[in-house]
Amino acid sequence: MMEDDLIVGDWPNRFAVRLMVRLWWRAEHDFSSLDEYAMKQAKQLYYRLSYLNDDELELLRLKYFRRENHPLGDAVVAEHYQMPCKEFRVWRLAVVEKLEPYRSNPNRI
């Protein structure tokens, strides 16, 4: 599979995580620095983020929306939600999986 195939279409496991870590903060705070390919990726990331409800989006924002190129640890975010780390991790992975399949309409579950 070529990188271009990943912009639109189903995403393999962890591709959404890589984009959120590498691109999400930059897309909102330094958009002019994105090259054409990164802009396409950012658009597709936002399209897929629209699949989520507010709670799911907030979970990903807390974990991945960071200036640094690394997410907060699960234990830190789980503490914010006052839940066991293993339970949080299961929830987080379920939310990330929602971003993997491509849907022809955003905001539709």
Structural write-up:
Helix 1 packs across helix 2 and helix 4 packs across helix 5. The protein is globular and about 40 Å long. With 109 residues, it is mainly alpha-helical. It has one domain. The chain has 5 helices and no strands. The mean pLDDT is 86.
- Give average pLDDT, whole number: 86
Q: Gap between N and C termini, in Å?
A: 26 Å
Described by strand count, sense and barrel closure, the largest sheet is: none
Structural class label:
mainly alpha
Radius of gyration: 14 Å
How many β-strand runs?
A: 0
Give the strand content. Answer: under 5%
How helix-rich are the residues, as a percent range?
55-70%
Low-confidence stretches: none
Total domains: 1
Shape: globular
SSE order in H/E notation?
HHHHH
Number of helices: 5
Task: Name the descriptors.
109 residues, mainly alpha, globular
Topology readout:
Layout: H1 15-29, H2 36-49, H3 54-64, H4 74-80, H5 85-99
Helix pairs in contact: 1-2, 4-5
